[in-house]
Amino acid sequence: MTRFVIGPDVALRLAGDRAVIRAEHQLLAPTLVRSQLLSLLYQAVRRGEVTKQDAEAQLDYVPNPRRDALYCVRFAAPEFTSLCPVTGQPDFAHLVIDYAPGETIVESKSLKLFLASFRHHCGFHEDVTVGIGQRLFAEMGPQWLRIGGYWYPRGGIPIDVFWQSGPPPAGLWLPEQGVPSYRGRG
Q1: Are 160 and 148 in contact (CB under 8 A)?
Q2: Residue 66 predicted with pLDDT over 90
Q3: How many angstroms separate the CA atoms of 152 and 94, rounded?
Q4: Angle of CA points 129, 132, 136, to nearest 5°
Q5: 31 C-beta neighbours (distance < 10 Å), count
Q6: Around Cβ 14, how many Cβ atoms within 10 Å?
Q7: Is 102 helix (H, G, I), strand (E, B) or coil?
Q8: What is residue 168's DSSP assignment?
Q9: Of the four listed, 18, 86, 90, 182, which is most buried by Cβ atoms within 10 Å?
Q10: Strand partners for 146
Q11: What is the pLDDT of residues 108-159, one digit of tens each?
């Protein structure tokens, strides 16, 4: 494995270019870099070089501390919000993201901010749900990933959207997503 020591300027450029770091490379930085990077990102937003929404939509990945273990990570976002592309009205969903990590894991605060950035994003339920899953899979490179988008009804029709990268690895314990289909008041 080749290790590269980077500074905040390089980290910001790599994030802006959405660079994918190959598994045989590792990026290292002093602890101070995270606060320096956030400062640079804030300054870029203030100068108008990066929109606030783009800054919030950056995902951070860290090395998987248990690369030798097969395990499942679950994130649940029960109050996810995006905008309807037709009416501009808010749409609400309960998202459940499960993945079996590869070389990296997603940093949870960056995922929270990334998901919150969809409050300003217009997209159909299918596009939003599948797009989140595909982006996480492409950038993080897990062994396997699935996402369930349980959208609350608008116009009387609930929509549930599911996507996965392929079959789960053999031997992976995979709990049910645990979100019941919408039943209304009946």
Answers
A1: yes
A2: yes
A3: 8
A4: 145
A5: 6
A6: 14
A7: coil
A8: P
A9: 182
A10: 98, 164
A11: 999 998 999 888 888 999 999 999 999 999 999 999 999 999 999 987 888 9
The three-class DSSP label of residue 119 is: helix
Question: Where residue 53 falls among pLDDT bands split at 50, 70, 90?
Answer: low
Cross-strand partners of 106? 61
What is the structure's pLDDT at 12? 67
What confidence category does residue 50 fall into, taking pLDDT thresholds of 50, 70 and 90?
A: low
Size (the chain), residues: 186
Q: Does the pLDDT at position 78 exceed 60?
A: yes
CA distance 175 to 96: 11
Catalytic residue numbers, as ranges: 84, 91
Closest to 147 in 3D by CA, of 115, 185, 104: 115
User: Which position has the token pair 């996480």?
Assistant: 136
124 exposed, middle or buried (CB, 10 Å; 0-12, 13-18, 19+)? middle
Domains of the chain, start order: 1-50 (no CATH), 52-186 (3.30.1130.10)
Long-range contacts, stretch 175-182, CB < 8 angstroms, 24+ apart: 175/72, 175/74, 175/98, 177/96, 177/98, 177/148, 178/96, 179/94, 179/96, 179/148, 179/150, 181/150, 182/150, 182/152, 182/153, 182/158
